[in-house]
Specification:
The chain is an alpha/beta fold and 128 residues long. It has a single domain, classed as NAD(P)-binding Rossmann-like Domain (Rossmann fold), CATH 3.40.50. The chain contains 6 helices and 5 strands; from the N terminus they run βαβαβαβααβα. The chain has helices spanning 16-28, 42-55, 72-80, 92-95, 97-106, 117-127; strands spanning 6-11, 35-39, 63-66, 82-87, 109-112. The chain has a 5-stranded parallel beta sheet, sandwiched between helices. β2, α2 (42-55) and β3 form a beta-alpha-beta unit. The protein is globular, with a radius of gyration of 14 Å. Belongs to the saccharopine dehydrogenase family.
Length: 128
Amino acid sequence: MSTPTDEITILGATGWTAAICAEHVAKGFPTNTKWCIAGRSAAKLEALRQDLRAINPDRLEPDTYVSPQLDGEGLDPLVKNTKVLINGIGPYHRHGTPVVEACARDGTHYLDFSTETAWIAQMIRDFH
């Protein structure tokens, strides 16, 4: 297993809550934090990256990762390259399971914003 190069990856970074999370990283984390913003649209990710640069021009810019699909092929390189994945793509009962599965398989720490308690319980049963 290779060593992850990003400390944090925010998946679905251009969504409302995940973008707020990205702004928090840009404002408050050490400027040398290696991180990544990920999603389906290269154009939206680049626009977010520009906004984040304006917030704190002294920090390392995030890498960007475009994945049009949430499947093993699209997720594995992303998950293997980060220590912590923050998932902002909901609804989680529809889109979250492959992300949790990939993180569990690769030993990547996982965090999301879900309030879908039945789905959360199922993920704990399946992957904890």
